[in-house]
Design a protein that fits this description.
- The chain contains 5 helices and 6 strands, in the order βββαβαββααα.
- The protein is 39% helix and 13% strand.
- The strands form 2 sheets. Strands 1-2-3-6 form a 4-stranded antiparallel sheet, with no helix packed on it. It has a two-stranded antiparallel sheet with strand order 4-5.
- The chain is flat.
- Helix 3 packs antiparallel against helix 4.
- With 188 residues, the protein is an alpha+beta fold.
- The chain has 2 domains: 83 residues, no CATH class; 75 residues, no CATH class.
């Protein structure tokens, strides 16, 4: 990482760069900020012309890049982030060069939903099997059951919310009981 005179930090990987002002980001995030910049090479074999489904001859000329800002509270950036990508090779003939933008595909969204539903059904069946069936008394299914519960989507969030509610409710009831007791020596 290099810092220049404009407080912009430059992260680079395989000839691609990301310029970001980490100091401005830290001012909006309790004094700390970090950035991760990755380059994924070799994706042209997977993301060829058949995947991109274009009428023209299409090929990838640069690597796939990704960036993330871990543990950032505010998602609004005070200054823009600049990405510079380098091409792997030059074109022999001029042509139309565009950046790919993924479009929403309703069929893929439907397939994704169906796969999630089927997966949830099988996870529920596995959980019921581990709860209700014991094939061998020497084998304990508790670890398998907990693994399935952890992998089951939203269970962790629901359990955390439920535990939070129960703890707060128990403290509230203790407070109400304490305040309902009469004060003084006349109590038993």
């Amino acid at each position: 990482m290099e810092a220049n005179s404009t407080d912009t930090s430059s992260l680079s990987a395989r000839g691609n760069t990301m310029d970001i002002n980490l100091k401005a980001l830290a001012r909006n995030n309790n004094g700390t900020a970090s950035a991760v910049f990755l380059t994924v090479s070799g994706m042209e074999s997977l993301l060829g012309a058949s995947f991109l489904q274009t009428e023209n001859h299409t090929e990838m000329l640069s690597d796939v890049i990704t960036a993330t800002l871990p543990k950032i509270n505010h998602t609004q950036l005070s200054e823009p982030v600049n990405f510079t990508m380098s091409h792997k090779r030059r074109l022999a003939e001029p042509g139309l060069m565009t950046c790919t933008v993924s479009e929403d595909n309703p069929f893929l969204e439907w397939v994704n939903r169906m796969c999630v539903i089927v997966g949830l059904v099988f996870f529920a069946l596995a959980i019921l099997t581990f709860l209700l069936c014991s094939w061998n008394p020497k084998i304990n299914n508790t670890a398998r059951l907990h693994l399935c519960l952890c992998l089951f989507p939203l269970v962790c969030s629901i359990m955390a919310g439920l535990l939070h509610f129960l703890v707060v409710a128990s403290f509230l009831w203790m407070l109400l009981e304490r305040s309902a007791l009469p004060a003084g020596p006349e109590t038993l």
